Fold Transcriptional regulator FtrA.
Amino acid sequence: MKKVAILTFDQQALFELGCATELFALSRPDIENWYQTEIVSFESGLLAATGGIQIQSKSVNHLNEYDMLVIPSWSAKPRTIQPELKSAIMKMHYQGKRILTFCSGAFLLAELGLLRARKATTHWMYKDAFTARFPDCEYVEDVLYVYDGEIGCSAGSSAAIDLGIEVIRQDYGHEIANKVARRLVLAAHRSGGQSQYVDKPVPKGRNLFSETLDWAVENLDQKLDIDTLARQASMSRRTFDRKFRKTFNMSANAWLIEQRVALAKQLLEETAHNIERVAQYAGFDNAMTLRHHFRNLVNITPTRYREQFKDQNKDLQKSA
């Protein structure tokens, strides 16, 4: 079981705090060894939040007992960092513990020098201020988040959920991440040119279009294309294509590739099938095609992905 600290401070942004709380602090008794989370502050007393709301959190002067720190937001303008807070974050980093920032939270890590020579992102409206103050960070545009297993930064506020779901997937696997995503009622896809694609279920619906997408996800090992999907939905190809692009801002073919890569990830995590068999079950022509699309969407090979997942599981078992 991982212990998580969610950092609060005076003038806390409520939406980002809510995202962190919903992801990691909400009780989920049906999930074994779920995160044990506390909302903490290095300031004492009541803290002001967005809209004048006051919040009370656990006052701390260190983070020694926590395995992960979530920084939901931080001031985009220079702000004094308490020595105890700086020391605690630096110690977590040196110990190899995970640190996540949502939206403007990246400013705190950058101020501490922890994003130097690292890829980082934040909300697009802070781009100019961030790059001007921290030119030694490798700012990445047009992504929902960047995450290397130790430090993660999400872009806009809602992208925090995408980052959080990816962390949950790494900690608990594809099935649990999908369960949490469904409870959060996430959209089926998130556009933005990102290379990280979080596994998200297609929302259930009572119309032929959404039922067709559900059917496609259950039959990815079959030969599927836009004509097949249009027939399944009892639509003309033109009508189906127009509705699909309007709904998801992508082609049906691109969507099918994403779903197949997502299924391949699940198979790599949960089975010992060789890459050729994984490709077959995920609906790709062969292992070469799987490797091509997997690299494009996940940025690593299927074999390396499986190795990383096994390593993460070993670390999780050791810390449980």
